[in-house]
Amino acid sequence: MIYFKKAQEVASECDSLFWEGMACRGISDIFHETFDSADELNYAKMEYNLINKSGREPYARYAMFDLARAYASDGQDSMANIICGKLKEKAREMQDSYLNYLADQLQSVCYFRESKYDKALKGFETVLGSGYGDEIDSLYYGSTLLAEGRIREAEELLGRLESSDSPMKRKLKADLFKERGNYEEALVEWETIHSMENEILRASMNEALATAMNESYEIQNREKRLKIKNLRLLTWLSGLILILVILLFTVIIIEIRRKHRRDIDRRVAAAQELEDIIAKKDSKTVALRKLLFSSRNNIIEEISQIFITNKDTKAFRRRIADSMTAMIEQFSSRSERIRVLESDLDESMDNIISDFKKDFPGLKEVDYRLFLFSVMGWSAPTIALFLKEDKVEAVYNRKRRIKDKIRCKGEDRFERYIEAMR
Question: What would the pLDDT profile of 40-54 be if each residue is shown by its tens digit?
Fold first, then answer.
């Protein structure tokens, strides 16, 4: 019993439905042999449920038979009959003749105990004709014949049986003596039956006692072995924990050093990256300054040429006015000079003008020129002059609206437009 219990425990821990069911089967068989029908039925149910869930055949079919047998042992013959009916269907389907015999035999015994002798008689005839029938089946058949009043046939069957002695065989003899009116012989047989059953019961009790004692000794020995095992395990675990602690501290120290090294490398890389960014920005700033100086120098060059070629004061003033008016016209419309400025700014500032127009395609042409002049760093009065605005406030208002539209986008990459306009 203890080994089956241990096997059940191990199988349960391993989530092995099949082997847990097989362990329950062994325990159920022990309770069947010791006439403990309640526990037999309990473990037979567990056996069937576990093995049936595992889907292992033919074990699931025979677990179903064990369940029917346990119901019969517990006196629930009607339930056993129902299960036997299902078993015979499965046996015919799977062509399992032995399982069919077991189901017929158990069902016939249940019919006999329920006094359904006609069904029992047919059942035992089928059992004896299956090729698996034994003397016990013949004795049940003889008892059924006697219950049906077929005394001569029962006597002939008993005479054909071997000389083996069993309580059931003597019971059939006692019943035949009683039917013939030989009460003294019947009483002798019943006394012998009681004596034999007492011996069986005594043997069963002794076996149960011996099993209990063996289990007790085994439990004590197992507890001793478990204590020794636990002590060894504790020693081993203590050493392992010590080693792990040492390894853990070693790993922590190594990781701290690696982290420190990575932190230094990261800071060096960040410094290098910052240096590259500054160098890049310085390069762009220099290019932008060159562009602005070039633009201003061009304007100064134009004015100087006017002064050289026109020394007359009135002509000089008129020429200056005409030149400034033409320049204002060039910056106030989509002229070649505007396109040159946009191209130069794109080249020196990562396509800032082209990107701005792509990101904000719905703006007016005057807004694009205002953005261009702002990036060039021109003052608000100068921008107002080139945009032909009467009031400088108009430039501030237009610039504010452009910045608001940029901020509405809500993306960090658009911040460079606002930075460029400052």
Answer: 999 999 999 999 999
Integer Cα distance of 291 and 312 in angstroms: 33
Which is more confidently placed, 332 or 102?
A: 102
Q: 58 preceded by cis ω (within 30°)?
A: yes
DSSP string across 258-327? HHHHHHHHHHHHHHHHHHHHHHHHHHHHHHHHHHHHHHHHHHHHHHHHHHHH--SHHHHHHHHHHHHHHH
For the entire predicted model, the pTM comes to: 0.46
Among candidates 105, 181, 182, 183, which has minimal Cα distance to 144? Answer: 105
Secondary structure percentages of the chain, helix, strand, coil, to 5: 85, 0, 15
What tens digit of pLDDT does each residue of 156-179 get? 777 777 656 777 777 877 777 777
How far is it, in rounded angstroms, from Cα 317 to Cα 335? 25
Q: How many CA atoms lie within 13 A of 190 on its CB side?
A: 11
Q: Tokens at residue 125, please?
A: 């005839």
**Better pLDDT: 201 or 377:** 377
- The top-scoring range by mean pLDDT among 115-129, 161-175, 180-194, 249-263 is 115-129
* CA-closest candidate to residue 386, choices 343, 302, 329: 329
Give the Cα separation of 371 and 338 in Å (integer).
12
Q: Report which DSSP code applies to 413.
A: G
Measure Cα distances from 27 to 55, 206, 366 in Å: 21, 18, 97
Residue of 177, 131, 132 lying closest to 151 (CA atoms):
177
H-run or E-run covering 133: none
3-class secondary-structure state, position 422: coil
Task: Assign 3-class secondary structure to 309-365.
Answer: HCCCHHHHHHHHHHHHHHHHHHHHCCCHHHHHHHHHHHHHCCCHHHHHHHHCCCCCH
